[in-house]
Amino acid sequence: MEGILDSYMRFLATLTPAYFFELFWFYFVFEFIRYFFLEFIVLNLYKIKSWTQRDKKEDARRRLFLENPLVSILIPGKNEGKHLYKLANSLSEQTYKNIEIIVVDDGSDDETPIIGRSLEKAGLIDTFIRNELRGGKASAANCALRFAKGKYIIHLDADCSYDNDAMEKILIPFFMDNRVGGVGGNVSVRNYNESLVTTLQGIEYFNTITTGRTVTSYLGIYRIISGAFGAFRADVLDQLKGWDIGPGLDGDITVKIRKKGYKIAFAEDANCLTSVPNTFKKLIKQRLRWDKSLVRFRMRKHRDILIPNQSFKFSNFISAFENITYNVLLNFKWYVYLGIMLTYYRPLFLNIFITNILLYTTTNYVKFVVYSLYRPKAHVSMSYFLVYLPCMVLYYGMYLRAVRTVAYLQEFFFKKSYQDPWNPRKTSIHGEYLGI
Amino acid sequence: MKHFETHNYKSNFVLEQGQYSYVYIRNFEIPPLEEIADHDAVVIEVKNLDFVRLIVNAVRSNLDPDIYLTPIFLLKKDVLDDVPYIEELVDGSIKSLDDLGFVNKEIDKINIRKNSLNITSSVSFEAQVITKLIALMYVRELKVLNPIPDKYSNLYYSFPFMAINFEEKEEHLALKILNLAEEEGMLRSEYFDRVYLCSSCSGSHMSYREVCPKCSSSNTTPDDIIHHFPCGYVGPMKDFSNEIDDKLDCPKCNKRLRHIGVDYDKPSVIHHCNNCSHNFQDYNVNAKCMSCHTDRSVETLKAHDIKTYRLTKKGELAAIKGFTSTSKDIEDVVGTVKYDTFKTMLKYEIERLKQTLGDSNLCAIHIGNSSQVYSKLGSELQRGVFKDLVSVIRSNIRSSDVIAFWSSSTIVVSMNDIPHKIALRITGEMVELLSELIKSSFDDLEVNFETKTVALDYRKPHEMQLRELLAEFD
After folding, report:
1. ipTM for the complex?
2. Do A136 and B232 touch (CB under 8 A)?
3. Which of A121, A147, A241 lies closest to B233 in CB terms?
4. Domains of chain B (ranges plus CATH)?
């Protein structure tokens, strides 16, 4: 141990700025600039914009309540009955009242039909549709959409819970800019203190959703409205005729809305809490599904975004390009970096590895503390996460990177997303055939 | 053996044969009903069943026992279908007037039993209806009262001997009175069926419809929901209908639907309300009452059991001895408590005496000739007499003492914490006052009051002491 420390101190002493950059270019070029420097600047600009637009936002809120449009809340799902009473009750507490709640039971094999039917009778939900044959999440959402009467559509997951002003907050962006076609809500982790993996996801959601989506939204390249909490203009969804088959349908519909020429906004103050997988094994399953959809939708189904043609739009191009670059290309580029380090700097590899860990951890701490100042009110004290931040390098940099790599390769070479049991085979088989 | 006896027309309505005289009703002519009491039977010529029903109802619903108990026979010259409702109310049928001899035996039997009855006027409508029912059952030796499916009845089931007393809209009251008669021990019942009646008017002519759970409109249209696999579109079948060639085309991707289970399926059915545009799967079932037009959920309907009833021995005896009032009638008299409550209070008084060794008394006042008395009084007057009797008794006893009816002719009174001698004196004074009251109220009415007053014995159970007190009045 002492030897390693001595060697490391000698290594640090030899580091000149040029040599430092030569060894840690990957961190500087991709991580530091994109995920710290750029985000920091944008967060400041965002704050300024929020302050200058505070009157406009208040006016939008006033117009929302003045117009008081009917808002249809769609809750599709399978075996979600156990969450429905709590969810319906929390929705009745919302500050925005003109809502209709439509629940679609996608072929549940538990008590969901009985629970849903009794909630409908009790008036806690407006319409409960029971589909005996499971059709997948998209079909359930489309079924709910077909019978929705609202001017705006909000898509929720049954196992999530919402701040009592969340519906109001997610609708305001529509009244601030009439080119907005969809708005994503801010999703945080409810069970952050259940296990190490949920705590790390709590930090990850803070970084990638609360901060990440604020930044991408400001830049006009926000690309995924979470299925857990997303709002849409009904006329836009009507043009698109709803969701296409998944998995990854929430990212897909966001792209489709963008392609129609509408803007996508992020409502960072519309808070939703969700339960995340509580074991590493379950998380792998979820992330494999998510990561495969990136390849399937961004690189395959919507690759036309990247090609200059008549419907080419720069922001859409950047949105997809940034997504593909930072998630797919850099993921593989990291292996190149690893290869170079192992090949050309093998004697120094341990020291490079330690320095990388220290660099990333330091950045994580600085980001976490500084960005907390920009974050809207949270349901949990940020200090709870501080002790877990060093784990993020291994969690995000190693564990999730490995999962991403597997997912990308599976989808690139085997189109594995079409075999995912998350979607019924009867629909996936058509998706595979049609290449969608 | 056939009876070929000649019959003579004494008047337009009266027919005689031997010693028997019949009221003969034909050609849609209706005789004065009071005449029926002077004849042995009624014969109705059956040409129009509605007319027959009208006549039979009129006879049986009359309040005079000499009229409503009169045997009725139908003269059926042509072969006609039996109408169960009418058949239940009549005593037989003949094919020609020459056959009258065949029914005379039945007339004798009915009239003998009819003459054995001691019908008193009743305190209440309920008691009156029960009296008529048990009298009709008794004279006809009708042991079982069966409900008859009857599309004309407001309950769909008819008890003809009960239905005659009610307007169509009030027929449900028949069920209540039958239950009351059962509670009184006159009838014994067995479950037969159940009907659901309107919660507003107790009618049973309902139209059941599937209605929208939001606006209760029955103007709804069901439609299959279709899920198109390739594009994930889901909607009612009308979304897919192609008006040109009647095939199904997807409104999202324009593909033709070809093979259920392969490229599409039908996961459920949805109903669309054409009135309020609500979409739903779980419709409500409403019942619209055809009588009062209320339209409510079937859950609001009142369930009533339809039963068959048997006349009990007690019922037969009540028919013979007369049935004046139901326990409900005498419970309703102000200033009295229910007999069961009286017994409970007596039990506590005995317990109290065990501690205090004081003097308490139990008194019974009985109207010996109650049948005669009640026969002379109308039902309203009887109620008045009950009230007056109780009021006189109440004014002579302490407010802590209690009064209860044991029967319509016997009143029991507790007189607590006074010596037996004084109790006897008070009882005597009460009887004098009661007699004076009756004299002053009714000129030609003589009431025989009998009394018995006993000192309460704390060593004997309360029920035994009551039994001993009331034994001679049973």
Report:
1. 0.89
2. yes
3. A241
4. 8-115 (3.40.50), 213-282 (3.30.40), 325-473 (3.30.70.270)
